[in-house]
Amino acid sequence: MKLTEQHKKALMLQASEVRERTVELIYSGQGGHIGGDLSETDILVAVFDYMKHKPENPFWEERDHFILSKGHAAEAYYVVLSRYGYISEEELKAFGSFGAKLGGHPSKKIKGVEANTGSLGHGLGLAVGMALALKKNNKDNRVFVLTGDGELAEGSNWEAAMSAAKFGLKNLTWIIDRNHLQISGNTEDVMPLENLKAKTEAFGFRTVEINGHEMDEIFEALSLRDSEKPVCIIANTIKGRGLACAENQASWHHKTPTAEQVKNMQKAMEAYRKELA
């Protein structure tokens, strides 16, 4: 699928607004996995624009399904859901407070969330199960799942990948947020993943590698469907994207920005949007 310039610009503006609101949310809630939130933002914005869903009817049978396997990066997810009306502004503002509906990881108690996630290595398996059930029921709904790259050290991902290939789940799209950093450092130092494209292809996926911050490339990859194989999208991203002090810094895996850092980011996003306008 090719984006028009108008559509592309609208999504880029939306992603900028989501980034800014996510940083504000983490500041007000005094905690959050800010680095991974900001690396996944463009992907989340694109996926929710691309896939079939109805906020007014979250259980619509013809909807596509999305699972955020890297559930610790929930804040950007909440902001995107709020833009579609799944989450109210009051619920969003309460993030981080005692008894709030929105916690540090997504829960099915939240409208629009398909699965409880946060225990890493489970999301791909859940997505495979959903895709298999849809296939058995002759449904054409698609299943999208977003995992982190550090998460791939969990062996359950690779068991799920083998199953996806065995059952020919062409309705499954596995997206990897490849920001190269996890809480303890660079993925290639902690648990090497490369050659990741060759690995996923060897496990039976049709794999494409893209810039995870370019809307054109994300949309083209999301529209890719193989006649027999599940699809894997390796989305190369920057951890902390948009918050200058956090970009490519493992120390910002989980961190709360200062008021000054929030203001600087707000100014940067405002300037970015003026350039786009």
From TrEMBL:
<keyword id="KW-0808">Transferase</keyword>
<protein>
    <submittedName>
        <fullName>Transketolase</fullName>
    </submittedName>
</protein>
<dbReference type="InterPro" id="IPR049557">
    <property type="entry name" value="Transketolase_CS"/>
</dbReference>
<dbReference type="GO" id="GO:0016740">
    <property type="term" value="F:transferase activity"/>
</dbReference>
<dbReference type="InterPro" id="IPR029061">
    <property type="entry name" value="THDP-binding"/>
</dbReference>
<keyword id="KW-0479">Metal-binding</keyword>
<comment type="similarity">
    <text>Belongs to the transketolase family.</text>
</comment>
<dbReference type="Pfam" id="PF00456">
    <property type="entry name" value="Transketolase_N"/>
</dbReference>
<keyword id="KW-0786">Thiamine pyrophosphate</keyword>
<feature type="domain" description="Transketolase N-terminal">
    <location>
        <begin position="15"/>
        <end position="269"/>
    </location>
</feature>
<dbReference type="GO" id="GO:0046872">
    <property type="term" value="F:metal ion binding"/>
</dbReference>
<dbReference type="InterPro" id="IPR005474">
    <property type="entry name" value="Transketolase_N"/>
</dbReference>
